[in-house]
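Section: Multi-chain targets

For targets with more than one molecule, the full set of components is provided together so that the structure can be written out for the assembly as a whole rather than chain by chain. Components appear in the order listed by the source. The example entry contains two components.
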Amino acid sequence: MLTLRRFFATLGPGVLWLAVFLIVPALVMLGYSFLTRTDLAQVGGPWTLESWGRVFGYDALFQEWTGDNVRVLWRSVWVATLSTALCVLMGYPLAFYIARQDARRKNLLLLLLIIPFWTNFLIRVYAWILILRPFDLVPSLTATLLGMVYAFVPFFVLPVYSSVEKIDWRLLEAAEDLGAPPVRAFLSAVFPQTLPGLVAGILLTFIPALGTFVVSDILGGAKTALVGNLIQNQFGQAGDWPYGSALSFLLMGAVLLGLWAYARVAGQKGLEELV
Amino acid sequence: MIRRTHPALSAWAWLVYAFLYLPIIVLVVFSFNDSRFGATWAGFTTKWYGVLFARADVREALVHTLEIALISTLVSTVLGTLVGLGLWRYTLRFRTALTGLLVLPIVVPDVVMGVSLLMFYSFVRQGLERAGWSFDNGFWTVLLAHVTFQISYVALTVRSRLAGYGPELEEAARDLGASGWESFRRIILPLAMPGVLAGALLAFTLSLDDFVVTYFTSGSGFSTLPVLIYTNVKRGVTPDINALSALLVLVTVVAIVAANALLRPRRGA
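Its structure, encoded as tokens over all components, is:
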């Protein structure tokens, strides 16, 4: 039984820490999103919905709808979707390849996959400048996409690999024995077994792709700004914290909604296995 | 399970690996390039490493990076291990909410976490100023932020390490006369230890690697290596940053290979 004394001896300190440095800041952020900018990076009253209006494209100053921010949001979703799709294309077969090797080679291949994964994110993105510059591709949307796929493909492969590892191959043999052509046999006997890993991998790729500002900042340039860049800018040059707060809340809300949907399908165990 | 692998599948896999290693190899090669502007090869040199070691800001950022990583790992490993043990040990009424709280720092985009902490610190500072106190963003604000995202990783690693064991383990120890503290120290902790070490290693790497949260919480006078690399890259590519990056890649490779050797299961694989 968890008494108050035991709570403070085990879960308590960590939970309190997260409450203070995670939940309270989120609430402060929510509060700031209803204020207005008074001076550079200063916020003040009165309470207003102005920033939230801007998030959805309404300009309070000129009292009209402008598409600019909405275009950035749309581009972010689109770029994240495309880079996730490319990760699936690259990573799904790779997970099968690794899972089918003998134990020694399997370990080596996983190690080779983890090395870039654990190498500093910024350095890996930066390295693409060296490669793409001679082709005049920095900055560009192509470079951003390439950088994202490169940075996130290990996130995708690892969960898919752990699903492929658990595949019961006897189902494939059964399907083949029953006369299913290879593609049909794969789709009905193998593919469904990889679904948990596939969904986890897609989430683990899509979420960081949606939220990043580093890749698009280094490889993309101003014309290909994503929502992450828009947020960063509000806390840098633009100095508009309320607007930045509203954008951050929208981004966080989108991610949490996606996770909630995932938890509904995969259950709590699935949510724990995701991380 | 070994089954036939189609040659096309092997070819695809090696292409993906080539893609993953191309930038890293290019980076290392160009760190030895004797040209100020890196696109063309102008002969082999190690001078950029000399230039790098002569930079005071690089040395200072290295010290900051290591200080933050070591202290935050220590704090988060203690807190996270306790949370992991609590999750394993007790039946909790708010288990789903608690899992959600732990998953949050892992899934919320780091830019969101960074800016919310930036605003939180500013909010607290305003409150303290009224009481005549003040602080600047820097070492402490970064340290607290790092612990915040590390706790979850440690807690979840420890919990999953203990997942296979039931509460009867501790009951048996108590039946044999162990006190609560004894059974914790002699039974539970040794069992959890691989999880604790793996969690600590993960926390340490996350701290070393973190750019976004540090960037927003560090203020102007304090930087770690990732922040220093970012500000340098924004000013334009310089060969000594290639050298710094190549060194960090080397450190990562050595650390991973060492961790892999340490954590390798004893019998078979």
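Chain A has a mean pLDDT of 85.
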